[in-house]
Structure formats: C-alpha cells, structure tokens
C-alpha cells in the first residue's frame, strides 16, 4: 500500500480537490491520505495556517477574532461550495473552531498549537466528506484515536516510539483513511504540532508505521531540480536520488522536502516519490536507499548563504592533545552548533551559521578561545556561502574535484575552503557570498551541460 | 651577531673542524658557536652519541664499559691528532667520562642523559682548544654557569623561561663562545637532554636569548629541497621560506630541521639560515617570518605515510550539539592525538597516525563511539598517506586547487580526502599509501617543471 500526502497548494480549491480525488482513486494502493491545510490559490493569497496564527494572536491579545474566524471559514466554505457539498461539514468546522477559541489560554504556546492544528484537522474532515459525496468510501481519522502520540513541545513535537505500533492498526480499516497532517496528541491528550512542513513528517511517520511500499508526496513541482532554478534557468530534473543525496542537498537550501521529515521513512527504507498534483503523469523524483549511478558523478548542486568562520591558530597545535575538544566545548557552552572544522597543522577553522551569534556572543567566544586555549591568533570571516556538490557517483570517480575546481577557477571564484572526504556523496566548497551565484552557475555548466563540439 | 650551529657531520673529523674554523672566523658576527657531538665520517661510521648510549647501557647492565669508553675517546683523539692538539684536552675528556661513569645510577634515565650529554660537552671543549691553538680567542661555555636551565624530563627537557635572561649575559663576553648543544641543567643541578636534534634547539634558544640577527644552522646539504629527493630526482632548491611553510613541510616528513627546534627563534622573529659546512659559499635556505612570493604559489611538497581514518556517520549528526566534542573526548581518553577531522553533514572522519593504536585500542574506541554516541556506522581505513602542498603564494591564488587536482586525476590518483582552507599556506590531500609516490611526482611536475612547448 501507499501513503499519499498532499501539500497546501494541492488542497487550496475545489478544483484542486477534484485532482486529488482522481489521483487517489486512480491507484487502489493509495489507502492513507495525509492532508495539509488549504494553501495559497495565487501568489498574494494567505494560507489558512497563517490566518489561524493571526486568529490565535487576536485571542491572546483579547481582541475579537471574528474577522479572522470568518476568513478561515470562508476558505473552507468556498471549497465546499465549488464541490456542491452539504452545509453540514462547514457547520462542523465552524463549531470546532469556536470550541478551540473558547478553550484555555493560560499556556499561549499550547493555545497557538491547538488553533494551528485545526487547519489540517478540519481539512481532513472536508476532504473525507467530499470523497464520500463522490461515492468513495473514505473516513476522517482522528490522530488521537489512531494513536499518534507526541512529546509536549509546542511547535516542535516529536513522535513517541509507541505511536508506530498503534498507528499500524490503520492497515486493518476499510476504505480510504484521510489523516490530518502536522500534529499529534501528548500523553495527557493535548494537541502539539510538528515543526514547519509538519504534514510531510506525519506522512513519513505513517509510511513507517504502516510499512508502506511507497510514500508519495504530492506538491506543485514536477520534480526536484538539480540546482536552484532562480540561479540556473530550466535546470535538469532529478529522476532518482538517494536519501543521503537528498539530505546533503536539503542541508544547503533545497527545500522541496524538509530533511527531518524523511527520517521515519529512511529508517524503514521506504522510497519517497515527490510528484506534482497538477501533472500526476510526470514520474516525479524518487528518493531511495540505493540507486544506479550511471548518469555521471554529480546529481545536484545546492548552496546556502549566511555562514561565518572562526579561524584559530596556535604554533604546535597538533601536538596538543585535547585542543580540538576544548575549542568545541567553548562553542557548546553558548549552545552554538557548528558545521565544519577544516584544519591545518597549527590552525583550525570552525564554520557556523551566522544567525546563531550576535556581536556580544562572538566577542565572548573569541576572548575565551584566546584566554583559555592560549591561541596565537583568532579571527572571524563573515558572509560565506557553502556550496554542496552532491552525487553517489563521485565516490570512486577520479577527477571530480579536478573538474569542479577547474570550473571555479575559470569563473574567477576563490575557494575559501574545501571539505571533502568524509561524506562519500558530496564535496563542499566555501566561497564568499558575492561569488555564490557565479560559482553555482560554473559548476552546473561543468557537470550538467553537455559539451557541444 | 650571529649564532652558528654545526651538526655532527660538520664536526666528525679534523678536516671538518678546519672548515668550521674557517667559516666562523670568516665573519666577525659569528660569536656563539653551538656544537653537536662528532657524527659519522662515512656511512657505516657510528656517531659518538650512539657509542655513549651503548656505554651507558653497559654500565646499567653491570658490564664493563671499557671498550665503548675506548671507542669514544678514540674519536676525540683522532680529531686531536689530525689537528696536532696537545694531549691535555684528551686527558680532560677521559677524566670527565670516567667521572660520569662512576656517578649515581639509581635513576637510569638520568644516568643515560648524563652520558649522552658528554658527547656535545666534550666536543665543545675540543673545538675551543683547537680554535685557541690556531690563535683565535675562544672559550668553552659551561651551560650550567651560563644558566641554561631546563625541566627535569630525561630525553625531553624543556628550557625554563628564566634561561633566556641569564643566557643574555653571554653577549658581554669577549672572543668566540663555544657552547655544547643538546642539554641543560635542572634547578637541582642535574643534566637533562633535549629530544633528538637537541643541538638545533640549543642554537634556537641562544639565538632568542642573545637577540641574534641570524641563526645559522650548518649541516651537510646545500639547501632544503622542494620535494623529497628520493621521490623526485634533483628537485629544485628552496632559497627562502617562511616559518609557517617550514612547519607544514616538517609535519609531513621534511627532516632537515626539527620543527620544534624552530620555536624559540620563531617567537623572537630571528631568521634561520640552513647552510652547508662543505660548501659554505652556497646561499643555503633562509627561513624567515615573511617573504616575497613571486615564484609561483607552491614552494614545497611533502608527504608522509602511516595514517588511518575513523569514519563515523549518524543521521542528523549536524543537529546534535556536542557530538564532535564527545567524539574527540573519546580519543583523548586514550591519549590519541588526531590530525584532521573532515566532515560532511551526517558524517565525520578523524585522521590519526596509525602507530598510536593497536588493534585492541582501535576496537575499544570503535565500540565506545558506537555505544556512547549512538553512531549509525563506524569504519576504519588503514594505510593512508598525507600530502602537503605548501606555499604562502597560494593564499590568494585562484586555480591552485584546480591545477593540483587535475595533476592527481591525470596520474589516476583517487583523492580520499582534501583539507583546505584553514591554513592559508597549504592544502592537504589524503591518498592511499600505494598512490603516494605517483601523486607527489605528479604534483611536482605540475608546479615545478616548466612547460616546454
């Protein structure tokens, strides 16, 4: 069987829901459908989730939320209208929303989670009603009854291990199960949401729990591109990539699927198919455990801005047992996570995401490194970009680095840093942010554009 | 003024001492001369220091050391004979040696240090006697009287900070000061030797303490070569290199000057000139703080075998604050020093010198990483070589990596690892040991052999 997840833009209008129905009923294996809240119908539209957050804010500030409530209800009503559904389901959504708004606000984070979750929860009810109206056996699934138990961390809930066994019994239900994404229930019965992209997480958990053959993730692109389309026009689509490749690409800015969302499917070895609701016959991109790599060494190039490096030098550093550990210990004291630590003989750089530090913390960190580790020199470089060149095929490919560095040299990009050799599926270049775009374009040219003689 | 140090081969015979005298008296600035013990006269010869170690071993095993004593005395006597010196100095050396042999053996390490140090100490007396016999004002300096105070670590003494001020008064002495290398005295008045190449250390300490303008280090090569002559025939000589370049090259197998020996001169910013006793008119190699880099980006290529890597992978590793520190903490518990830690998103490799671990320690380390850090995978790669491509000029040189990696690809060398970007003066490649020689040759061809059209 297949777990199928539809994103917000796939559920934004009645027209979109018709496509969803066609897709689901076209394959008898599609038994569990995870739904997001209705998303944007056009660029300036507001997602239901964002309306709900504004609604919660109004309530917490003792403002009358009725405008926001009306706006939310209007979205569901528009869909129901378009699909000629009876008023019953809209009344149900209306009552549910008022019940939530009237509930306890003493813990604001939890109240926000309760309202946010209604977007998916009510959309699942609507989708189930529509399927049934079309003569398809479909059931709304209450995550509480189904047993999706989560930790009590507002906005960042984690599935509890016992969820997997409980959710497995969904396999025994008849018809199509419509499961709301994005949230679960704590052991004490309260609603907690996952982090953003939380419906992807729900789908991944269900795919694992139900031992699905495939996890289909429907969104609004035909496939994952090999490079950011805002940097390179009409880039090549990726047909198949491995979890590891996806994770390396996600790290540096690929946002089609949130990398943490993949973990449950990854652990169970279930392939993930990213497909387009608006073009379901396109094969999409398949994320698998292993793949043939007959298409050259590189599958994708990703890049991300906003890094800085702390350079530390000390004569005879490499003779000093414990230096590296102490250095990382200082960062840990400030809760800073670091990305990489390229090192020479007497020097080491620590690469971090810049948004973790303000000037004050940076000064403290530098002073502690100078004073406690007796470094000869500590200096900081800002505004770095990291570029990941990713592909399982580069593992045993002599000359990939030569091609990549030649392309960068030709584009007059100075390589600030290279990290290669730990991951077998990627190499990483650090460049100045101003060089990022030029560097990515040069690498794409080198690895993806066929040479015309 | 200049501090001048002569190595063992420069002092192995009367003929060599004549050269030393000529060199020292040819420049009035050469006021302090540091001497090693007599070295080898020919390939199969035994160094006096090695004879003294055998002598100490005999004494500690209650064997009669007279043969070894005779062999040591015979070396000094041969030099004295060749130079027509009076018997007085040989009698003095004989008496000194017997006094040392008769001394306390309850601490064997200290006894060995006491005997080893006599090689330099007595040679300084001999050299001073020869200089005087030639009408040159020269004085043997007793390191105890001069104030070269060291820590009480046998075979690994470190100069105490107060030494520097005390030794400075040597500047006020008239004539040429002949200073024995390799040892100093502890606060309690006992002899302790430096690590191997200890006479280089003595010279470096004196250059610092006396604020010398230059530290000349006379040995038996015309210059430091840009690459190991056993890998590339007749490689280019290096005219000038910086401390940092020297240190990076030393790290990976360049042995002309021991890198730790440079520290005191480095701290005082004193240039070091490596010269050839047998060809003193050759300019040699000058080690400086800064240099022009007009000769291309690369100054030298060094390589060293005997490394291994421990590869650790864990999904979502980079979200886990403290992972790196804990990993390095495990290594520290076993007293293991590591060289580099190239990292990907979900994986990190630790590169270590293989001779630190036996199979048992490796198994324990791997088990602790698996169990305490919950790693998904831990694996070990043996028999790696590290190649350092070194040069101040590569700091801002676009395309150096492209040239290097192209050369390696052409030579069909797979790059296991690259570490670049922390040190501004080097890039490091990890390759399999079997590829080492081919890789170094290819890099040398690329950077040093002029293209002939």
List the helices and strands and how they pair.
The structure is a homodimer of 453-residue chains.
Chain A: E1 2-6, H1 14-25, E2 30-35, H2 48-60, H3 66-82, H4 88-101, H5 108-133, E3 138-140, H6 143-146, H7 162-167, E4 176-180, E5 183-185, E6 191-193, H8 198-209, E7 214-219, E8 224-225, E9 237-238, E10 240-242, H9 243-251, H10 263-268, E11 272-276, E12 285-288, E13 300-313, H11 323-333, E14 338-340, E15 347-353, H12 359-373, E16 377-390, H13 400-410, E17 417-420, E18 426-432, H14 436-448
Parallel strand pairs in A: 1-2, 1-7, 2-4, 3-4, 7-11, 10-12
Antiparallel strand pairs in A: 5-6, 8-9, 11-12, 13-15, 13-16, 14-15, 16-18, 17-18
Task: Tell me the name of the CATH class of the largest domain in chain A.
Answer: Alpha Beta
Which word captures the global form of chain A? globular
CATH overall fold name of the largest domain in chain A = Carbamate kinase
**Poorly predicted sequence stretches spanning 5 or more consecutive residues of chain A:** none
So how many helices of chain A?
Answer: 14
Largest interface (C-beta under 8 Å): A-B, 62 and 62 residues
Strand arrangement in the largest pleated sheet of chain A: 3-4-2-1-7-11-12-10
CATH superfamily of the largest domain in chain A: Acetylglutamate kinase-like
Spatial gap, N to C terminus of chain A: 48 Å
Assign the CATH architecture of the largest domain in chain A. 3-Layer(aba) Sandwich
Function (chains A, B): Catalyzes the phosphorylation of the beta-carboxyl group of aspartic acid with ATP to yield 4-phospho-L-aspartate, which is involved in the branched biosynthetic pathway leading to the biosynthesis of amino acids threonine, isoleucine and methionine.
Binding site for ATP (chains A, B): 5-8, 219-220, 225
Organism (chains A, B): Neobacillus bataviensis
InterPro entries (chains A, B): AceGlu_kinase-like_sf, ACT-like_dom_sf, ACT_Aspartokinase, ACT_dom, AKIII_YclM_N, Asp/Glu/Uridylate_kinase, Asp_kin_monofn, Asp_kinase
